[in-house]
Amino acid sequence: MNQTNSPINVVVLISGSGSNLQALIDGQQDGSLPINICAVISNKPNVKGLDRAEKYGIAHSVINHKTFDSREAFDAALQAKIDSHTPELVVLAGFMRILTPAFTQHYAGKMLNIHPSLLPKYQGLHTHQRAIEAGDDFHGVTVHFVTAELDGGPNIIQAKVTITPTDTADTLAKKVQQQEHVIYPLAVKWFAEGNLTLEKNHVVLNGKTLDSAGYQLEKII
Ligand code: GRF
Question: Are residues 93 and 160 in the same domain?
Fold first, then answer.
């Protein structure tokens, strides 16, 4: 467990539906995750993820990037809001903004992201379609520590899904999301229990340095 044996404070950033947020709320509720989600912040108003926070009595707010003149100004406001909650961990759960290096540096080793591809493959958008068009046999999802490089890793954990001949971007997205809701809570649990750290840009899990692909979930769907 972590040094105090108590739940760690987590701030979750979202831009949309918040199904990954829900997986973390579920873990907090059923006691499997030693976390206290102290705030949910969205850069978009009126998204479903905010309703989820409301339902569970979690503090939630919108910082609309469209009301800022620059990326730096938005990130500074976001950082101030996050830090007002003094989180030990910041979780990007479908948060669709490119972040400035100053922001990512501020949370070095304390901020996680989930990306729907087997990184380093398919950084950026439209990952499911790109995997199909490339004729890949497998696709998947990666949880990684956030650095200045967009979707750049370092990887913590990956889960694979099989691409079948009938798969479309939509069916593939559904399979990938199923895996997302398994591996994100797992990575957050490792971090919250003090077993996952970033050391000199290498991921250390239970005292062992992981290779660049990260921990591989055995179950492939
Ligand atoms: C997920 O597919 C995640 O991988 C991507 O954005 C989506 C967010 O989904 N970065 P949700 O808002 O958690 O439902």
Answer: no
Segment (H or E) for 209: strand 208-209
Same domain, residue pair 145 and 93:
no
177 touches ligand 1 (CB under 6 Å): yes
Q: How far is the CA of 173 from the CAs of 56, 176, 221, in angstroms?
A: 27, 5, 12
In the reported structure, the alpha carbon of residue 94 is separated from the centroid of ligand 1 by a whole-number distance in angstroms of: 4
C-alpha 44: how far from its chain's center? 17
pLDDT, tens digit, 9 for 90 and up, residues 55-65 = 999 999 999 99
126 is catalytic: no
CATH classification at residue 135: 3.40.50.170
Domain tally, the chain: 2
Residue tagged active-site, from 60, 115, 128, 181: 115
Q: What is the pLDDT of residues 164-200, one digit of tens each?
A: 999 999 999 999 999 999 999 999 999 999 999 999 9
If asked whether residues 35 and 62 sit together in one domain, one would say: yes
Domain extent for 63: 1-107
Q: Are residue 68 and residue 122 in the same domain, yes or no? A: no
Query: Exposed e or buried b for every residue in 142-159, given b needs 16+ CB within 10 A?
Result: bbbbbbeeebbbbbbbbb
Same domain, 20 and 103: yes
What is the bridge-based pairing of β-strands 35-42 and 8-14? parallel
pTM: 0.96
Please write the tens of the pLDDT for every residue from 58-114. 999 999 999 999 999 999 999 999 999 999 999 999 999 999 999 999 999 999 999
Of 80, 107, 134, the residue that ends a domain is 107
